[in-house]
Amino acid sequence: MGIVDGALTALIFIRDVAKLKKGQKILINGASGAVGAYGVQIAKYYGAEVTGVCSGRNVELVKSLGADHVIDYTQTDFTNNGQTCDVIFDAIGKSSFSACKKALLPKGVYMTTVPTLTIIKDILWTMLWGSKKAKFTTAGLKQNKDNLNFVQSLAEAGHLKAVLDRCYPLDDIVEAYRYVDTERKRGNVLISV
Fold this sequence. Notes:
Blueprint: H1 4-17, E1 25-29, H2 36-45, E2 49-54, H3 59-64, E3 69-72, E4 85-90, H4 97-100, E5 104-112, H5 117-128, E6 133-135, H6 145-156, E7 164-169, H7 173-181, E8 188-192
Parallel strand pairs: 1-2, 1-4, 2-3, 4-5, 5-6, 7-8
């Protein structure tokens, strides 16, 4: 099932780290990728107003996943367009807390899936000072059967739909990795065994 990896990661960040609540505004950078596509859907499940950030070719996909607003990053810099939100979820690790800080509401949270020395410094700094917080978690280490069952129930109820870009046979796994490395995939790339 192509939903598992991206959806489980998005669930941990959105439900457990951000503690997203109904009516809050969340911006998801990388909204058409493996984590971001499920992040959009999970955020909508929790009743948030969702803005997705992706390339122009993926705008319609992100809208179809439930995003209320979509920003084409090739046309608009979401960190500097005057809009603010409660949560910024950088599902692809292409931004930073310092770049996103002014786009956060007071007590806003910036989260990234990519651990760097900078984000560790930002996490420590924001633990002590300021109302806006930088956060990271090791989502893979927080998985359990209950999370898997919850994601399965969301899929079965129609709240999550799989976003599959391509499927490669096992013999073409190198080519699959090359494609993923282009950073142009939509949702997941699967390997059939």
